[in-house]
Automatic annotation (TrEMBL):
Protein name: IS4 family transposase
Length: 73
């Protein structure tokens, strides 16, 4: 299905920050992705897949994202 424009998309941070107790700092657990950056790199008609992403501002639901840049016509 298609995402709304205001949907936030995240990837898991491979190197999150930790407290001294060993728990992960919440602000460093996920990295927000900039979709404009991905779309600008694509040519017309090209697709790009991101296998492990998380959608949502609060819940972070796991998903797979496929980007497709429409052709001119």
């Amino acid at each position: 299905s298609r995402l709304k424009l205001n949907t936030r998309i995240y990837q898991k941070n491979k190197e999150p920050e930790y407290f001294q107790s060993g728990t992960i700092k919440k602000h460093s657990e996920y990295i927000q992705l900039d979709m404009e950056q991905f779309i600008d790199q694509l040519q017309s008609g090209e697709t790009y897949e991101i296998p492990e992403i998380y959608i949502g501002m609060y819940q972070k639901l796991p998903a797979r994202l496929i980007l497709y840049k429409l052709t001119e016509t």
